[in-house]
Write a structure and sequence with these properties.
By secondary structure, this protein is an alpha+beta fold. It contains ten helices and 15 strands. The chain is globular.
């Protein structure tokens, strides 16, 4: 049986301006983010881009039909109408490509790589061109240089943070298509941490597990909120359209316990409760790369049929010859005194079938915390993670 592989890579950065019609897409994506986080959460570091995953799967969803489409819609929290999903992502991506801020770097690109003799429906090709502004290239997957060409294309558009996305033997004569979406983020802090103030200190990973880490200090007016569960601080990037939000549990509890009741609703209410306070922020420098195979998790949240021989992606080819064999995700983040660089990649493999005067608050992140990188105009959660050990 021949194997058709369709790979979607999503690497995400964003400075978005709110556009009418994106609100449903944003709300659904954020719901999916928390659904996925609940499945991925562990005692180790965690970093991923829910927006990246949603974006990649949106391009697959638009070619789904019948029960396959219905399950994907529910699992991914998409709008009932596929055209509404496409239009929502189109508006977001167009805004990202036309907006630029000093201190913020944005790179968004899409491409569809098709085996020379394989045919996708013109309607599907036109759709990914129209809504996702995708390039379409015909290639020979049997030639090993094609994999190198695609990997180089990805690396160039992600500032070389995603290397060798397609490993050896991942594509070949059986591969019929690779669909890629790349998004890349680099943002300088609106108020940089002072390098001269950074110091070596203790990070309490667990009750009896500590590491020495480099801590950064910034004293300024930040949006801040605290309750019985978390201290929350918002650290904006230049232009203030994108922020990092850090949720620090009380030192008397663990992050795992604090996150047990952490939901989309709690998150939304906490964001609305933020107020300007004079805050001393102490934050460890950290860098991490995370890789996942999301296939089993997506099945558990309701996408079972898409991974079976009864999958219906006839909106792509006109017949039911494709199903999803794997959904792979990779994410990178580096947080320093100057700012944040982050990238994420999602691959879907498809074989043939089958301000005010206030006292100083102290926010000292010297124990595990949860964080989000958020686009503020639309409310889109771009990246999400938990930091249990800044040295890993």
């Amino acid at each position: 049986m021949r194997k058709i592989s369709v790979v979607l890579l999503s690497l995400f950065f964003s400075h978005l301006l709110f556009a009418q019609g994106t609100s449903n897409t944003v709300a659904g994506n954020n719901q999916f983010a928390f659904k996925l986080f609940a499945k991925l959460q562990s005692s180790h570091n965690l970093f991923f881009s829910p927006f990246s995953i949603s974006s990649a799967l949106a391009m697959t969803y638009t070619g789904a039909k019948g029960e396959t489409q219905e399950q994907m819609k529910a699992a991914l929290c998409f709008n009932p109408r596929a055209d509404s999903v496409n239009m929502g992502f189109e508006k977001i991506m167009k805004t990202m490509n036309t907006d630029t801020l000093s201190g913020v770097k944005l790179c968004v690109a899409n491409s569809l790589w098709v085996e020379n003799k394989f045919h996708f429906l013109d309607s599907y090709v036109n759709l990914v061109k129209q809504y996702y502004n995708s390039e379409v290239r015909n290639v020979d997957f049997a030639n090993e240089s094609t994999r190198d060409t695609i990997n180089n294309w990805v690396a160039k558009r992600t500032n070389n943070k995603i290397q060798n996305l397609l490993p050896k033997k991942s594509v070949g004569a059986e591969t019929k298509a690779v669909l890629i979406n790349t998004l890349y983020f680099y943002g300088k802090w609106a108020t940089e941490f002072q390098s001269k103030a950074s110091y070596k200190g203790t990070f309490y990973c667990k009750t009896k597990d500590t590491v020495q880490s480099t801590f950064m200090i910034s004293v300024n007016h930040f949006n801040y909120f605290e309750d019985e569960k978390f201290q929350i601080v918002e650290l904006p990037y230049k232009g203030k359209s994108v922020s990092m939000l850090i949720f620090l549990p009380d030192s008397g509890t663990t992050l795992a316990l604090a996150l047990k009741e952490f939901t989309d609703t709690y998150y939304t209410n906490a964001i609305r409760s933020l107020q300007t306070e004079h805050v001393k922020v102490v934050l460890p420098k950290f860098k991490t790369t995370q890789s996942f195979n999301l296939s089993e998790i997506l099945k558990k949240v309701g996408m079972e049929t898409a991974f079976t021989g009864t999958a219906d992606f006839s909106g792509m080819t006109g017949n039911k010859e494709l199903y999803i064999s794997a959904v792979l995700h990779k994410a990178f983040i580096a947080v320093t005194e100057q700012g944040t660089e982050a990238a994420a990649a999602t691959a879907v493999l498809m074989p043939m079938t089958s301000t005010r005067p206030t006292p100083l608050k102290t926010f000292k992140a010297d124990h595990p915390f949860f964080f989000v990188i958020r686009e503020n105009n639309t409310g889109s959660i771009l990246f999400m993670g938990q930091m249990n050990n800044p040295n890993h």
